[in-house]
Amino acid sequence: MEILRRSNMAFLWLLVRLWVGYEWLTSGLEKVTSPAWTGENAGAAVTGFLNGALAKAGEGAHPEVHGWYADFIRAVALPNAKLFSYLVSYGELLVGLALIAGLFTYFAALAGAIMNLAYLWAGTSSTNPEMLALELLLLTAGPVVWAIGLDRFLMPFLRKRISPG
Fold this sequence. Notes:
Elements: H1 10-32, H2 44-56, H3 67-77, H4 81-101, H5 105-121, H6 128-140, H7 151-162
């Protein structure tokens, strides 16, 4: 793991951030411009997605969607589908922009990882496993992940402002 923290790996992390950021950005843009996500029918797409996840919930040792997550969908997500629709749409867009810019990189990678986990728990795969793995690496590789990005300038400034004394 130490090899990934070296300063000469900054360009590799830039490429990782750009790819993961692009994936989030394009997905978020698609949703933000869709009436089923953020327009007059906001919540419709989320409701369809969540009902699809519930259809995958089952009994047995290895259901695609575990019972606890199905309970969360029924009790929290479905009754608030419109809110989740906006949170997901703009969350994806903002995570994508932040990763591409290298701005609040750790927070963006963490938010992306949480969304990828939620999608995986809902029984989808797509690029979620690859993105989750890369986001976890971004979270553990240290400051080199934002060496080429806006955080390179922002983080030292914030440290000076926040540190006591």
